[in-house]
Amino acid sequence: MLTFLSAPPRIDAAIVDLDGTMVDTQGDFVAALGLTLTELGLPVVDRAFVAHTVGKGSEHLLRTTLAHVGGDAGLYDAAWEAYQRHYLAINGRHSEVYPGVVEGLQRLRSAGLRLACLTNKPTAFALPLLAAKGLDGFFDLVFGGDAFARKKPDPLPLLETCKALGSVPGRTLMVGDSSNDAQAARAAGCPVVLVSYGYNHGQPIRAVDADGHLDRLDQLS
Ligand SMILES: O=C(O)COP(=O)(O)O
Ligand SMILES: [Mg+2]
């Protein structure tokens, strides 16, 4: 499965990140934040701001956005209610599956691996997005950022996902797009490969320690 690595580990299962790895969701984040900020009478944010800020969950994105546009921290609860409402209404409308993702997931499944999607996005956003993009059928399990007590880059969500998959971390491949995924994988003891086209807080992904870097998920072979 990881023949592009010099010493490929044996893999029984894979954990795949969602935003920036399988689906380019930047447009959904910009749209839902725009509707939320407009409702609150605040200025909107652009794509570049979202690309730098996304990755540590929706609560972090919203708090950072409010601070960036000069919104009072006391607005957070109202903003969170509005953001969830708007995000669920537009979920997937401004998002695209990256080239090679379907083929890559098909390869992982044909290799007999159990698959989980593990994202920092709330589970209630992740499930309908995967379904809308026709990706839900690939996954035995889907866990969002609210599924466990801590989010990536903490290793806890990976360790819990390995347990749920019935697979040991050393044989469970993490596929992600950011240092959150890589740090969580390293701390959990999972091999990790990173895609080159995602968000990674606006930083170069090849500088992030990983077992390999891919330009498309169908390079997994
Ligand atoms: O919602 C986010 O902040 C990013 O989610 P991800 O873990 O799927 O990249
Ligand atoms: Mg990601």
UniProtKB/TrEMBL annotation:
GO terms for molecular function: metal ion binding; phosphoglycolate phosphatase activity. The active site is at D17. It catalyses: 2-phosphoglycolate + H2O = glycolate + phosphate. Its EC number is 3.1.3.18. Its cofactor is Mg(2+). Pathway: Organic acid metabolism; glycolate biosynthesis; glycolate from 2-phosphoglycolate: step 1/1. The keyword Magnesium applies. Gene3D superfamilies: HAD superfamily/HAD-like (3.40.50.1000), Putative phosphatase, domain 2 (1.10.150.240). InterPro entries: HAD-like_hydrolase_sf, HAD-like_sf, HAD-SF_hydro_IA, HAD_sf, PGP-like_dom2, PGPase_prok. The keyword Hydrolase applies. It is an enzyme of class 3 (hydrolase). Keywords: Calvin cycle, Carbohydrate metabolism, Hydrolase, Magnesium, Metal-binding. Mg(2+) binds at D17, D19, D177. It comes from the Bacteria. Pfam families: Hydrolase (PF00702). GO terms for cellular component: cytosol. One of its GO terms (biological process) is reductive pentose-phosphate cycle. Homotrimer. Belongs to the HAD-like hydrolase superfamily. CbbY/CbbZ/Gph/YieH family. Specifically catalyzes the dephosphorylation of 2-phosphoglycolate. Is involved in the dissimilation of the intracellular 2-phosphoglycolate formed during the DNA repair of 3'-phosphoglycolate ends, a major class of DNA lesions induced by oxidative stress. This is Phosphoglycolate phosphatase. It comes from Sphaerotilus hippei.
